[in-house]
Amino acid sequence: MGKSTNIVWHETSVTKEDRRKQNNHHSFVIWFTGLSGSGKSTIANALAKKLFEKEIKNYVLDGDNIRHGLNRDLGFSDKDRTENIRRIGEVAKLFVDSGQVVLTAFISPFRTDRELVRNLLEKDEFIEVYVKCPLEDCEKRDPKGLYKKAREGIIPEFTGISSPYEEPIDPEITLETNKYSIDQCVEQLIDYLSSKNLI
Ligand SMILES: Nc1ncnc2c1ncn2[C@@H]1O[C@H](COP(=O)(O)OS(=O)(=O)O)[C@@H](OP(=O)(O)O)[C@H]1O
Ligand SMILES: Nc1ncnc2c1ncn2[C@@H]1O[C@H](COP(=O)(O)OP(=O)(O)O)[C@@H](O)[C@H]1O
């Protein structure tokens, strides 16, 4: 339950459907989830470029960036991660309402949090993409040197090391980034979206 009382929902003069019609495409969330270093940001940004070239309005929300601003008050305890994802879910919903495709790149380690976001949206508005990569490969990549620090105990509660990651049970798509190239993963996504008439 929220804390605000005496608030009334306002219907908007321009609807989500109006915006979709004008944009000439559907609006929805592509929710990337996976370990740090699995490839969420890389693939989300590569896909965003492809969608942009196809004149599909889109925006990437990225864990690191959002934690610099909107969610700068949150850390990495289970409770803070849950609040992080709840807020991002609400922001993503606003983007969908604005007629855009939103690509989110958050570890989002807990199933219940991801389900909460799915349930905020309509059935055809949430696509869960599991960016799957074994921990040992993510650790080898270690693009930001964070795994090394986590192993040394400098970073506590690090996902995969000292904090859990719950794999999706039935994601719309799984991308195995230790087996396929960035381009192949993007192609897999484009094929899926086309096959569902989403783009
Ligand atoms: N303790 C700990 N655990 C995991 N990740 C950490 C941690 N501390 C900092 N970082 C950096 O923060 C990025 C993850 O932020 P997210 O908002 O995606 O995390 S979460 O969804 O709330 O779990 C993550 O970015 P990605 O590597 O892009 O996943 C890290 O760069
Ligand atoms: N198939 C692939 N898909 C995505 N990234 C890959 C792939 N193969 C290698 N990489 C590399 O792995 C790293 C993934 O980092 P990043 O996208 O920041 O991951 P995350 O956002 O999940 O933390 C990048 O350095 C990227 O170039």
UniProtKB/TrEMBL annotation:
Enzyme Commission designation: 2.7.1.25
Pfam families named among the record's database cross-references: APS_kinase
MF terms in GO: adenylylsulfate kinase activity; ATP binding
GO BP annotations listed: hydrogen sulfide biosynthetic process; sulfate assimilation
Protein name listed in UniProt: Adenylyl-sulfate kinase
Lineage of the organism: Bacteria, Bacillati, Bacillota, Bacilli, Bacillales
Pathway(s) served: Sulfur metabolism; hydrogen sulfide biosynthesis; sulfite from sulfate: step 2/3
Protein's job: Catalyzes the synthesis of activated sulfate.
Keywords: ATP-binding, Kinase, Nucleotide-binding, Phosphoprotein, Transferase
Protein family: Belongs to the APS kinase family.
Domain APS kinase: start-end pairs: 27-175
Binding site for ATP: 34-41
Catalytic activity: adenosine 5'-phosphosulfate + ATP = 3'-phosphoadenylyl sulfate + ADP + H(+)
Enzyme class: transferase
Active site: 108 (phosphoserine intermediate)
